[in-house]
Amino acid sequence: MNISAWAIRTPLPVILLFVILTALGLKSYATLPITYFPAINVPAVGVTVEEPAAAPGQIETEITRLIENSVAGLSDIKEISSIISEGRSETAVEFEIGVPIDRAVSDVRDAVTKIRDRLPAAIDEPIIERIDSENQPVATYSAHNSSMSAEELSFFIDDVVVRKLQGLDGIGRVELVGTVNREIHVLLKAERLAPLGLTASSVSDQVAASQFNLPSGRGNVDAQNMTVATKAAVSTLDQLATIRLSLPQGKSVSLSDVAVVADTTEKRQDFARLDGEPAVGFTVYKALGAGDVDVAEKLARALEEIAGTSPGTEFKIVDDSVTLTLANFLSARSTLIEGAILAVVVVFLFLRDWRATLIAAVSLPLSVIPTFWVMELAGFSLNMLSLLAITLVAGILVDDSIVEIENIVRHKNLGKSAFKAAIDASDEIGLAVIAISAAIIAVFAPVGMMAGEIGQYFRQFGLTVAIAVFFSLLVARLVTPLIAAYFLTSPSKVLVEGRLVAGYRGLVDLAIRWRWITAGLAAGLFALTIVLAGFLPSAFLPAQDTGRMTVSIELPPGSTLADNEEVSDLIARRLKTIEDIKTVFVRAGSGSDGVRDIRKAVIVMTIADRDQRKLPLSQIRERAEALLRAIPDLRFEFVNDRGGRDVSFAILSANGEQASTAARAILTEMRSNPMFVNPASSEATRQPELSVVVSPERAADLGVSAREVATAIRVATLGDADSRLPSFKDSGRLIPIRTLAEEAGIDRLEKLRQLRIMTSSGALLPLEAVARLEQGESVSVINRMERQRRVEIGADLAVGITQGEGIAALRNLPSVRALPPEVELLATGDSDSKDSVFSSFAFAMIAGLSLVVIVLILLFGNPLTPLTIVTPLPLALSGVVASLILTGHPVSLPVVIGILMLMGIVVKNSIMLVDFAVELERSGLRRREATIEACAERLRPIVMTTLAMVAGMVPAALGHEIGGEFRAPMAVAVIGGLIVSTVLSLVVVPACHVLIADLSDVMKRLARMNGCGGKPGRSEA
């Protein structure tokens, strides 16, 4: 049944169908969330255990390894990794895609519960929670109110702002930045404790015991049923200072006799600076599946309301990801519109008929708009990859309709009425149009089905292309013939074959006559292409200008938080001298890896808009790097928006010393290689450590345990663990009470040696009676992966060096080639993503090509015909390689996407040629004449559709707008592949068609001779 003829004769159902689809699409477009990346759901669970002041090596042995071994036995685990810092163990357990996150959390919790009694008693309760892969920060704000202190402003943010924001739909969590928290400090006077027989630990315990209000029962008292509550907590600081402390002799003293009670703030482990000034603020993270732009708008409105009800309060945005997300969306939309306009202009230049051009132009919105509706049903968003898909198919979406309308115009010029021409032309071209769309869908459907985390990223890309092309096919088979039948009323033109077509006829005749030579030359070109492709540089992603730069800094071992403040302020002042840097935001207390360390900080520089800059981004970075290098004893590294570096890898070994030795050797060679810039290791620095070595014999004789020694030191220096601190209630607010030595109480080794430890008999002894002090060094951070020690090494690459070249140079280092069997080198970050993404796409390409061949066999009913149709594929690669060489783009992810796109669209030309040639041959023409005639008739639509697609790609290839760095290499690859494959396939495909058809005839004759004893007939060529 000719569905196009049905649409022409019964137009009302088709009109109603597309009116409904368009309305649904417009509604979906208005409600689809706008995000930067697609929503991904990787089942991962984090286990966090804290033991205040414990050294990383101790935590690794006593906590992390036990947890890793416990969860390793769970099913469907993909990867286990751990980061261990002072007092903290963080283990991430990643499960295979598809494992329900609730089950994953439950399994990990059960595994940790089984070993809970084997973990140290001093730890805080393990925190087990899901790790949200898509929980990305939307914006960071700083708050200011001149009438509030830093502590008051911090409480205002925590009590008012956070509570307000967390009630908004789409906001996941709010993280405080640079806040100052109030604490009640009980500052012990060391010289007064010893004479009274008190220790820091005993005072802390007694203060905690005095601060509670507990329900105690219920009973009938004086004929009334009452609840009974025991209330011991004090209500004022004066009362806290007067509480009595029991002494060993049975007497008591007030707390004020041995300590000073101060209403102050906690000892800070982090801070924030905005342009060198202290900043107090918060970072807002979106919930899973929420739209970045929608959340940012709600956030801005909520903060405006809070500022309106809190006089003097101001909020300033210091860092955000929404600006880039929105700019990428707007630039992709404008690129789509510009490409569509150029494609329509090309159609008009060929057809010279405004009515026919208008019919072709209608196909684009009728294909794109309903696609939004299906995207909403599938839970997609308008993100970088789905927008890339729509931008990419701008020229393709009008392609089917161009083929239809060009054939209708050709039939009309033969003297037929518009109605008759629409029916005959759509019937003639129907199989070719279906085959073209089916081939593209077959190529991109496997991309939407790729497995793993990469598959979740590219699912929306592949399926969006397939959905849009499907609607394009519906438009071409239903709407285009329908409109043409009733609207294409312009006068017919007399068809006159020009000299170009006549010359092309002669060229095709020559190619067919020398078809073996033609095929051989094409094969030789493909071989040359493969050779040249081996010399192309490669990279994971092209460098992108996001309007911001991020650098992670690290101070020398032993540096304090005050040192970090001083250096960070100096850096901020110097960076602000670079005119194009608008703001400098410093967040100290952790590095780019998220590990807590008072020596580290992350600096985010906001750069002026592109059209307002005096310098290109590369020069701004060079100047910033020069300023940072001028600061002595400072380690720094620039990180990309994904938190990684140009090249990164891990050294793994069960033996930590072997891993360290191998990493140091590799790092030494990298520093002497000019290709690598600023290489650094996660184990490059060690921190000073004071070891308290307890003598087991003396401790046993005196009745002192090592745990009591550790507790006494921790309480005297840091206070008790946060989870065990008592609280002071003030106006409904719970303020922690921390007992610790005065600020200068233990500022020298001698004072630490004299710290009093209580024995089991109640006597007090100095610390030096049971232990000796040793000064040394220890690692500040321990990284683990797959239950092995892991040393991470990262480096930037010199100008002009691509990621592929850097990785190849790394693997050729003598130290890497000489790694012992017990040590493994594993790519991480972008280096790992590059390999996994490229291999996933390689599999998708093979699957797509297989599906294309299967679809073509089913449509044409001949197993050899698809061999002719896929001939342009290797020719397209020649164009890709040539375009990359000319433009200097490396082979990156966008280029791979472009090659994938070419697999679907370059077969279009051969489908149109072969389909018409077979049709003419069936009508009685000899094969050679039928092929030449088909080439002459299909020359105009082939050239027209190719130029339309090329024109649709031109705005993306220029890459001037936000996000253009990603789209440009892809568009360049597609344009090069399209042009070269079209030019060559117009000659090679007819020659290969005749060649393969002749071989098919020979095989059939041989089969008849073997089966029936018949005689072979003569060749039709």
Automatic annotation (TrEMBL):
User: What SUPFAM superfamilies would the database entry show?
Assistant: Multidrug efflux transporter AcrB pore domain, PN1, PN2, PC1 and PC2 subdomains, Multidrug efflux transporter AcrB TolC docking domain, DN and DC subdomains, Multidrug efflux transporter AcrB transmembrane domain
InterPro entries associated with the record: AcrB_DN_DC_subdom, Acrflvin-R
On the tree of life, the source organism's domain of life is: Bacteria
One MF term in the entry's GO annotations: xenobiotic transmembrane transporter activity
Tell me the Gene3D superfamilies matching this sequence.
Answer: Multidrug efflux transporter AcrB pore domain, Multidrug efflux transporter AcrB pore domain like, Multidrug efflux transporter AcrB TolC docking domain, DN and DC subdomains, Multidrug efflux transporter AcrB transmembrane domain
**What's a Pfam family in this record?**
ACR_tran
What keywords would UniProt list here? Answer: Membrane, Transmembrane, Transmembrane helix
Q: Does the keyword Transmembrane helix apply?
A: yes
Provide the transmembrane region boundaries: 330-351, 358-375, 387-409, 429-449, 461-489, 514-536, 841-860, 867-887, 893-918, 939-958, 970-996
CC per GO annotation: plasma membrane
Specify the protein name: Efflux RND transporter permease subunit
